[in-house]
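Hi everyone,

Forwarding the result from last night's run.
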Amino acid sequence: MSHATKAKTLDFLLELIINENTGPAEDLCQRIYVSVPTLHRYLSDLRDLGHEIEYSRTRQTYILIKNENS
C-alpha cells in the first residue's frame, strides 16, 4: 500500500471514529478493506499521533476520547 493510500485510509478511519460510526472491528475491517491485525496497527498509528481511541462495548463502536488538537 502506498503512503498516500494509507494516509487516506487513516483519515477515513479517524472520520468514522469521530462520528462514532465504526461498528465492531470485524465490520470495520470489511468497510475499510483491511485485516483485523492491520486495523489494530492503524489504530495504533492514530494513537501514536495523539488520538485517544477506545472501543465502547455499549455503543459497539470505536470512540474518540481525545484527539491531538484537544
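The chain has one domain: 3-66.

Cheers,
N.
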